[in-house]
Fold:
Amino acid sequence: MKLHEHQAKGVFADTGIPTPSSQLASSVEEAVDAADAIGYPVAIKAQVHVGGRGKAGGIKLAENEDEARSAASDILGMDLKGLHVEDVLVEEAVDFTDEIYVGVTMDRGAGKPVVMVSARGGVDIEEVAAEDPDAIVREHVDPAFGLHPYQARRVAFEAGLGAVATDVARVLSTLYELWEDNDATEVEINPLMVTADEDVVAADAVMNVDDDALFRHPEIAEMESEAADDDLEQKANEYDFDYVRLDGNVGIIGNGAGLVMTTLDIVDYYGGAPANFLDIGGGAKAERVTNALDMVFSDENVESVVFNIFGGITRGDEVAAGINEALEQLDEIPKPVTVRLAGTNAEEGQEILNTDLVSVEETLEAAVQHAVENAQEADR
Amino acid sequence: MSVLVDDDTRVVVQGITGGEGKFHTDQMIEYGTNIVAGAVPGRGGEHVSGVPVYDTLESAVTKHDATAVVVFVPPAFAADAMFEALDTSVDLVVTITEGVPQQDMSRVYRRLQETDTRLIGPNCPGIITPGQSKLGILPGNIFTEGNVGLVSRSGTLTYQVVDNLTQRDIGQSTAIGIGGDPIIGTDFIDALELFDADPDTDAIVMCGEIGGEDEEEAAAYIDNNVTTPVVGFIAGRTAPPGKRMGHAGAIVSGSGTGTAASKIEALESADVPVGDTPATVADYVESRL
Structure:
C-alpha cells in the first residue's frame, strides 16, 4: 500500500523527522487560506501516486496569494498521468543549499534490508543509480539487530555529506526504525533539504507498507480508502481480489497469479489486448466467481471474457456452478464468455456448464483464441 | 530417483487441525506421503485422520523421527512456525502459507542461513516426486513418473505446464514450487543444482515470472554450471510497470528492472529456449529428451 505524501509526512513528523509546515487542501479557497496561514513562498503539490510529479506540472511554487490561487486551480482537478488530482499539499517552501537522498528498502535478493544515502538528491534516484551508481552509498542491515548507529554514520560520511553527516545519520536511523515499526517495504526522503543554517528538512516523503502486514497496522490500513486511485481497483479491494486494470478489451479471470499472467500473455500472443489481471485465488467458490464476473462486466472497455481455471485446490465443478449461477441471474449476458476448465473436477465442471450462456473450450490456446475473436468482432 | 523427497520422507504437518491443514493432510496421505505426526499448540493427544497431534513441533519430530515439516499456519503466525521448525533441525521445511509479512520473512531467512535445513516457500504449492511423495497442495493426479525436473514460482502455471508435458507422455522426476514471494528459501539456482546432480533428471523446466533478478541470476548459473538441458518460460510479458501482479514478488519496477524481456534475453543467451506458450515449452522439452 502506497501512502500519499501528506500521509507519509504525518508518519515521519510523528517520529521527529523535521518536515516543513504544511496543510492538505481539496479546494482552491482552502489552498489559498492554507498558503496565507503558512506564509509565502509556498509549494503546491498534487497528491497522487505518480513519479515525476514536478515535471508533469503537479508541483508549483507560489510567491503570493494570486500565484497560490492560480497554481491551486491549475493543479486541483487536473489529470496527472491518468490520475485525477483531488487534493493538494500546501507547504512552506524551503530555502536550501543542498539536496540529499535517504531511503530504506528490502534487498530481495539478499533477503535483508538495505539503507541508502546519496549527496545527489532531488532527482529520480533510479536515474542516479543508472548513471553514477557510486554516488549512492548502500549498507545492508542485519534484520535481527536493526541498523546500528555506526552504520548510519558510515554511509552518511562516505556519501561526503560533511557538516550535516551526523544529522543525516540521525534521520536515517529514525527512518529505519519507522520502516521496521510500520512494516514498510520502502521509505524514502528525496530530497532531504539542507538549509543555509545547515539544518535538514524532509521536503518529500515516500512510504509503502507491506499489504501482507496491514493486519497489524490498522491505523495505516484506514488510510487506504483515501489512497485508492481507480474505481474498479477500489471495487476489487472490497471483493478482496488481486486485480490490475489494463487498457485492452479482453476481460481475463483465472486462478493463480502465474497462470493469470500467462493468460494475459497468450491473449497478447494471439493479437488481443488484455483488459485486466484478475486472480480469484485458490479454492474459489460460487460467490467469488459471481463477484469476478461482476468486476469484469463493470469495465466498459471489456468486449469479451475468458475464464481460465486450472484446478488444484479450486474445483472445476464449483467454478462451473458459480458461472451458471452468476449468468442465470442476468437478463442478458453483457459480453460473450469463454470458459476453459482443467485439473480437479474439470470434467464434472464441463458437464454442468450451461452452454447456452458460455462457450467451452478444452485447451488454454483455444479458449484464448475464441475470446480474442469475440473481442475483435465487437470492435468491427 | 528424485530430489529432496521420496518414499523415505517422514513428514510432520504444522497446523494439521486447520481447514487447509486437515484437507491437504488427507490428500497427501491418499497420495502416499508418509505423514507421521501433526503439531498444533493445545491440541496434543488428538488425532487427525489417524495421525497423532502434538503440542510442540519438537516432540512431534523427535518421537517420530521426522525428516520434513509442512507448514499450513496462518500468515500472522507463520514466521514463528518456521523458527520452530528450523530449531528442530529437520532436513526440509515446506511453507505453503500465503501472505507472510516481508519483514518476518527477512528474519526467518536470516535464521535459515545458520542452519543446515532447506526451506521451500513460503507462498508455494510445495514439492512432489510423482508416485512417491508430495508435500503441499499440488494436485497429485496430474503428475506422472518420469525424467523431467520442474521448478516454478507459480502453482497453477506449474499445473498447466505439467498438463502440456503429460499430453505428450512426458513424466516428471520431481516438481518444486518455490513460491512467488520476494524472499524465499529455495531459489532457482538451488533447484537447478539439485536437478543437475540427479542422474534421473534428463531435462529441466524452469518457469519464472516478472519481478526481481532471480531468473537472470539463474541464467548465468546455467551458462556456467548446468549440463542438463533446460527449457524456460516467463509469465508477465504484458505486465505494466509498477503494478503487483498477484504475487508479492511479481512486479516490474518503475525503472524497468524485472521485466519479462530482460529475463527471456538472459535465458536465451544462456542457450535456454523460452517458450511463448506452455505448449511450446513442452515442444522444446520433447525435442531435448
